[in-house]
Design a protein that fits this description.
Length: 158
């Protein structure tokens, strides 16, 4: 994202800045790309620290990346940018591929991490339990009559 916006705003590469339709479309992405960047940084930071919020932030960022990549691909396909393989078209295709494929891979990996996290809730010492001791079975674990719910715990350092 930083590379794209650096090239786009500096005019170092012709990426449609002079076409009013493309310029209007791209200007709408500044806020969305900033939010995506913030979620990516927050997810990375939390994942590196082992914080249980990391997988959730990763799924949010991955879904945003997938959506923005598909939106970009659909728009540029519709306006005909991909008809002639100019440097700008190749650059946009690479960015779209990174967003779509990377978003899909991270979405799948984030879901796996979230599901693994849910199965480990009862064994994690850093989880504040939100039920009383009366709900615990003879082995000290909560007796469940249904599937675990994510709202049954609050993650984070205790």
């Amino acid at each position: 994202m930083l590379l794209f916006w650096s090239l786009y705003l500096s005019g170092a590469m012709e990426l449609g800045q002079h076409d009013p339709v493309i310029a209007a479309f791209e200007s709408a992405f500044i806020l969305a790309d900033t939010a995506l960047g913030a979620f990516l940084c927050a997810a990375g930071w939390n994942l590196l620290r082992g914080n249980p919020r990391g997988p959730y932030l990763m799924v949010i960022a991955a879904a945003m990346s997938l959506y923005l990549g598909l939106l970009d691909l659909a728009f540029y396909g519709r306006v005909g940018l991909y008809e002639s393989l100019t440097g700008a078209a190749v650059f946009e295709i690479m960015l779209n591929a990174i967003c779509i494929v990377g978003g899909a891979i991270c979405l799948r990996h984030g879901w796996k991490l979230m599901n693994a996290d849910r199965t480990q809730v009862d064994r994690r010492p850093d989880v504040l339990r939100l039920w009383s001791d009366g709900d615990l079975g003879p082995d000290g674990r909560r007796e469940r009559t249904s599937a675990p719910r994510p709202e049954s715990w609050i993650g984070g350092a205790a």
